[in-house]
Design brief:
This protein has four helices and no strands. The chain is mostly helical and 105 residues long. The longest helix is centred in the last third of the chain and has 27 residues.
């Protein structure tokens, strides 16, 4: 068998075994059944970016100094970080508004 045909052969064998009852029927993937298509309200809520500075910590052996450096960097770069968050949020909100207009049409 050629390597290019291996995936198709595996699918055919699995289908045959399902037909024989040796494999369970095909079901949704791990997330397919639990996550539906998000509505525009969810997208709008997710579009707004906010970085929580409390997430800047380290649990490694020398975590305290690493955490201190991370927090210092956040403080020094705060203005630039806020500007980046604002730009990305404006873009995300504009995309959601465009989707709303398309949905109304």
């Amino acid at each position: 068998m050629r390597p290019e045909d291996a995936a198709e052969d595996a699918r055919a064998q699995a289908a045959r075994k399902r037909d024989e009852g040796r494999y369970p029927p095909v079901g949704p993937g791990a997330l397919e059944g639990s996550i539906g298509e998000p509505d525009l309200d969810d997208l709008e809520r997710w579009a707004r970016i906010h970085v929580d500075p409390a997430g800047a910590y380290s649990t490694r052996r020398l975590g305290a100094p690493v955490t201190g450096v991370k927090r210092l960097m956040l403080r020094l770069l705060r203005q630039q970080q806020l500007e980046l968050e604002a730009q990305q949020t404006r873009f995300n909100v504009a995309v959601v508004e465009h989707l709303r207009r398309l949905e109304r049409e």
